[in-house]
Amino acid sequence: MTRTDIGVTVVERVVADELGAWRAWASATGPADRAAAEEAVRSAYRLAGLAEPERVVWADSPRAAVALVRELADQRGHSVRDAVRSAPWAAERRRLHAELGAAGWSAHWAATGGRLWNSTQLLVDRIRLGVVEDLVGRDSGREAAEVRLLLLDAVLGQHDAPWLAAFPADQGPLAALAAVCRSAGWWWPFARVAVLSERPVALHRDEGGRLDHGDGPALAYPDGFALHAWRGMPVPAAFLAELSTLTPQRIRAEENAELRRVMLEYYGYDRYLTDSGARPVHQDHTGTLWRIDLADDEPVVMVEVLNSTPEPDGTNRTYWLRVPPSTRTAKAGVAWTFGLEAGAYAPVRET
Q1: pLDDT in tens, the chain (351 residues)
Q2: Residues with Cβ < 8 Å from 222, sequence gap 6 or more?
Q3: Concatenated DSSP letters for 288-323?
Q4: Which residue in 185, 196, 157, 151 sits closest to 57, CA to CA?
């Protein structure tokens, strides 16, 4: 390995370590470091050339923070988000873009903040939606618009980690914003008052970064504000509590097709086919094709295949492969899982 190779390896390792730290802050749960967050907020005001806020007040969730911001409408003064957050971010981005060039900036973003952006933005969008629904329901009127605007006026604290990861944030104008990111949740800067939110007490996501938890809230805050989800899909809390007692009859009775699909995923398609008394519709040397029709939804069609390679204990494991509803033969279903037409699927050796 050359000296240049060693240098590149060290740089990549440092970048990976830094990115890991930002990822940890973005997904941090537990009490905020209130003292550190408050000092960082006051520093952010000073760095923006503003007087420090007269008061820093706390709320236990973004929902509670929005409610508090609305209550303080006559006391908080005007929003200073542009001065505190937007202006220093824009200046640093221009500086780094000029230094690296368009292609260099694009590569830098892809290697840093871009790696955190999608999963964090998914979470931010769900929190915003949850706050609106909790405070004003599904109303689309003036009050809902006001709440949405207040949510867009938040500085995202820990969830600003993706874009902060792309900049040197240990000094200069972004240092204070980075310190809040490490210490607290969302916050709202106004001329006279700053409102800060606690971090969540629980966060559960799947490998794609979507909220996902089958046993309680996928996201929960200290005051009880919570979001329930199964593989990214919002679900009612009572619905999740019912999953452990599911039966094929209950699944068939569910009128909401999306919730029924969640039930099937939780219960297990193979188990559902077995317990519901489904009958095979086709069988050949590749396996057995099963189909069960569902009201107001596409049918569940699966191929049951037996692994020809024995397990360590000598048994052969059975696999269930979900295939398109249009599948008519077991061979066509197996072929589809390999991206092939049935006529083109002719394995030399089964494994």
Answers
A1: 444 454 445 445 556 788 999 999 999 999 999 999 999 999 999 999 999 999 999 999 999 999 999 999 999 999 999 999 999 999 999 999 999 999 999 999 999 999 999 999 999 999 999 999 999 887 778 899 999 999 999 999 999 999 999 997 677 779 999 999 999 999 999 999 999 999 999 999 998 889 999 889 999 999 999 999 988 888 888 888 888 889 998 988 888 888 888 888 888 888 888 888 777 899 998 899 988 887 778 888 889 898 777 767 667 678 888 899 999 999 999 999 888 887 777 765 454
A2: 31, 60, 61, 198, 201
A3: EEEEE--TTSPPEEEEEEE-SSPPTTS---EEEEE-
A4: 196
Per-residue buried b or exposed e for 7-26, using 16+ beta carbons within 10 Å of the residue's own CB: eeeeeeeeeeeebeebbebb
CB of 169 closer than 8 Å to CB of 179: no
CB within 8 A of 340, min separation 6: which ones? none
Query: Which of these, 284, 256, 274, 285, lies nearest to 320 by C-alpha position?
Result: 274
Helix 87-111 with 114-136: angle, nearest 10 deg: 130
- Calculate the dihedral angle through the C-alpha atoms of 152, 156, 162, 164, rounding to the nearest 10 degrees: 110
pTM for the predicted model, two decimal places: 0.78
Q: Who's near 42: CB < 8 A, 6+ residues apart?
A: 52, 53, 56
Q: Measured between alpha carbons, how far is 225 from 61 in angstroms, rounded to an integer?
A: 7
Q: Where are the domains of the chain?
A: 3-199, 248-344
Question: How far apart are the C-alpha atoms of 35 and 250, rounded to whole Å?
Answer: 51
**Rounded Cα–Cα distance for residues 43 and 310 (Å):** 64
- The CA distances from residue 213 to 67, 205, 218, 219, 259, in Å, are 27, 7, 5, 9, 14
